[in-house]
Write a structure and sequence with these properties.
This protein is mostly helical and 222 residues long. 76% of the residues lie in helices and 0% in strands. It is built from eight helices and no strands.
């Protein structure tokens, strides 16, 4: 059953993200609706799996892990934005949507749309239900790897569509950039899974996810 859930997540992520195209990732009310739907489906699978709340990460977690999660998210975002701006391999990357985004839209996105439509539902799905379900059946290492690979596959369309909105679109480096993006998301999935395991809850990975996406966006916008 847990692997069925993993397949559903991959199909769900790519189909939904192909249908909705907010200016910023998760940045409108349709994304909030789909985020809420993802949370409902995830909780329904949690009921089917009949796992304890602690195994699914629905617990407070420790403050040390939460602080580390926020710091890792912020640090990773700043490093990522700097690399994209400098462009040591492919040259400086320009993402077109941020060129016309207002300060008010950035603020609303970071404060509301990003956590509600992206960070919270995705962490519940991947580091909560999926990781916890695999962990209970196949062990921690398989759970971390399986959740990270599923997380990367979930982002396949997002990565492709995002690259189409950059100065790398249809160029010779687009395939390289796409593969690098998938690998980066998989590594990020491992880091978030480790935060979930070490902290004992979902708060740390939610903060890390929120901080990374938000400050990466801010770094590209400034």
């Amino acid at each position: 059953m847990i692997w069925v859930y993993a397949v559903i997540l991959v199909i769900w992520g790519n189909v939904v993200n192909a249908l909705i195209h907010p200016m910023l990732p998760g940045g409108d009310w349709s994304a909030v609706m789909w985020g809420a739907s993802l949370a409902v489906i995830s909780l329904a699978f949690a009921r089917l799996l009949n796992e304890r709340r602690a195994m699914l990460g629905i617990a407070r977690g420790d403050w040390r892990g939460i602080a580390i999660g926020a710091a890792l998210g912020l640090g990773g975002a700043l490093a990522g934005a700097l690399i994209l701006r400098i462009g040591p391999i492919v040259g400086p990357v320009q993402w077109n949507p941020v060129l016309t985004t207002t300060p008010e839209e950035i603020a609303a996105h970071m404060a509301f749309f990003l956590p509600v439509s992206v960070a919270i539902p995705e962490e519940l799905a991947f580091r909560g239900i999926l990781l916890g379900g695999i962990w209970a059946r196949r062990g921690r290492r398989v759970a971390i790897a399986g959740s990270a690979i599923t997380f990367a596959l979930w982002h396949a369309w997002i990565i492709y569509y995002t690259l189409l909105q950059t100065n790398l679109a249809n160029g010779p480096l687009m395939l390289f950039a796409g593969l690098a993006g998938m690998a980066f998301v998989a590594v990020g999935g491992i880091v978030l899974a480790l935060l979930r395991v070490r902290s004992g809850g979902l708060v740390a990975p939610i903060l890390a996810h929120w901080a990374f996406d938000g400050f990466m966006l801010l770094g590209l916008w400034i």
